[in-house]
Design brief:
5-stranded mixed beta sheet, binds zinc ion, 15 strands, Nucleotidyltransferase, domain 5, Arc Repressor Mutant, subunit A, 21% strand
Length: 395
């Protein structure tokens, strides 16, 4: 086994190195003598390789006991934890979370958007929240491998900006992805928020290969669809904008898209708030509305039931096209629990064929109010993996 040149020497070294790492993968710490036996390599070769691999951060060595004798025990270094940041932008609030992959929220911080959705005030709030979250999680900016941001509007994936003029007019044309990336000094992915929710649910254990829909019911209504863990975005990122299904074209309610009877004018959280405000003849906040529903206020419960049933009907249309395994609900009305879910299920059953009604589970998202944020962490993780993979391929 005399090496004939630098090329074959490094090839041999590489093979030995892989043999050693393989022997330690998934194993407990072993002594160097045991490692020599496991790999068939000479003790001197093992010593040299271990020294190099410790320097490279692949292995750790500590004092231990093997066969009753004090020995240097070798094991694989723990995989360095990779952190991501998720940003959930709503019409009236921003939430920023930090988490370790694959999507567990470690800490979060949120704030209202006092300056509305003007790009400069949005950026200011994101900057402050990101700093708070990094501090709470004990992370430097460099330790955040990637950032993903959810926005309640269709997104042009190529440019990371908002495309639909009627839904989030304040941010159309603003290079959201590039500006947030410049602000935080990290790579950023911008995605529709309902899509992020679908990604979180579609990548759960047990969801493999299934179609899962996440419906975000807030000021507007948007649906994200994940099929086999992959998002169905449509050609221009506008798939799932069910808030603008004209459920009742003869309605007097004019939507912000200019048409009448859109689902969001009757089935959104904002629709519930506004209908209850006019019924009780005073302007209510969403928090008060949820309080009245929780207290079983009969007028509030009626308004919620009407909205829930119409939402369920809209979801039925979606299910007749997609035949998903599960439709999970998110947004502030999940706080109303069964009082909301019951009428949604009823509207759904009336809108679909019996087979679809029997098969499709309509539930409140098991990830609760963290659904979109967990999805953002998952998206950040996927983006980091893709970048790493690209670097490997280019190397
Ligand atoms: Zn509309």
């Amino acid at each position: 086994m005399t090496p004939r040149g630098p090329g074959s020497l490094s090839a041999l070294r590489l093979a030995n190195r892989q043999r050693l790492l393989l022997a330690l993968t998934g194993a407990e710490a072993v002594s160097q003598a045991e490692l020599a036996r496991l790999t068939g390599l000479a003790p001197a070769t093992i010593s040299g390789l271990v020294r190099d691999l410790v320097d490279e951060g692949e292995l750790v060595v500590r004092q231990g006991v093997a066969n009753g004798r004090r020995s240097r025990m070798v094991e694989r270094a723990p995989v360095p934890q990779r952190y991501g940041m998720g940003i959930d932008l709503g019409r009236t609030h921003v939430k920023v979370v930090a988490g370790a992959d694959p999507g567990e929220v470690l800490t979060e911080s949120s704030a209202g958007l006092a300056g509305g959705l003007r790009p400069d005030s949005v950026m200011e709030v994101i900057d402050a929240l990101a700093a708070t979250v990094r501090e709470r999680a004990g992370l430097t900016a460099d330790q955040v491998a990637g950032v993903a941001m959810g926005v309640p509007a269709p997104i042009d994936i190529a440019t990371g900006s908002v495309t639909e003029t009627a839904i989030l007019p304040e941010l159309v044309g603003f290079p959201l992805r590039d500006e947030v990336s410049r602000l935080l000094g990290r790579p950023v992915v911008v995605e529709n928020d309902a899509n992020l929710g679908a990604l979180a649910l579609g990548r759960r254990a047990g969801a493999a290969g299934r179609s899962v829909v996440f419906v975000k019911v807030g000021t507007g209504i948007g649906a994200g669809v994940a099929v086999g863990g992959e998002l169905l975005r449509g050609d221009a990122g506008a798939a799932g904008e069910i808030g603008h299904l004209a459920l009742d074209p003869g309605s007097s309610a004019v939507c912000r898209c200019g048409r009448r009877g859109c689902l969001e004018t009757v089935g959104s959280a904002e629709a519930v708030r506004s209908a209850l405000s006019s019924a009780l003849q005073r302007e209510l906040g969403l928090g008060e509305v949820l309080g009245l529903i929780g207290d079983g206020h009969p007028v509030a419960v009626h308004v919620l039931e009407d909205a829930g049933e119409l939402l369920g009907r809209g979801l039925g249309w979606l299910a007749m096209i997609l035949d998903p395994a599960e439709i999970a609900l998110g947004g502030p009305l999940i706080a109303a629990g069964d009082a909301w879910l019951r009428p949604v299920r009823q509207g759904f059953r009336r809108a679909v064929l019996p087979g679809v009604a029997a098969r499709t589970r309509v539930v409140i998202s098991p990830l609760g109010e963290d659904t979109e944020a967990v999805g953002a962490l998952v998206a950040a993780h996927i983006a980091v993996e893709k970048r790493t993979h690209k670097q490997d391929v280019n190397a």
